[in-house]
Amino acid sequence: MADTDGEHGIWLVVPPQTGLMWLLGSVALIAVLVHALLIGHTKWYPAYWEGGKAKVAIEHVIPHA
Asked: What is the pLDDT along the chain (65 residues), one digit of tens a residue?
């Protein structure tokens, strides 16, 4: 099956071994940065991580939980 839309052209300039490494590395780096920003710069994320409203709801049902 021939590739007719030209997507193969990048591999004529950059070898797949190098290109795939940079592509997957950049995706992983972006994912880590997004998670770090969520953890460090939002007020709701730490509360979500600790249980937030669910923890308060449990304390109303079970005292001293």
From this structure: 455 566 667 667 777 777 788 888 999 999 999 999 888 888 777 777 777 666 655 566 666 55
Domain residue ranges of the chain, discontinuous segments joined by +: 37-65
DSSP labels for 3-55? --SSGGGHHHHS-HHHHHHHHHHHHHHHHHHHHHHHHHH-SHHHHHHHTHHHH
pLDDT of residue 15: 78
Q: At 60, which helix (H) or strand (E)?
A: helix 52-61
DSSP letter assigned to residue 63: T
Phi-psi region of 64 (alpha: psi -120 to 50; beta: other; left: phi over 0): left
Task: Give the C-alpha separation, 65 to 62, whole Å.
Answer: 6
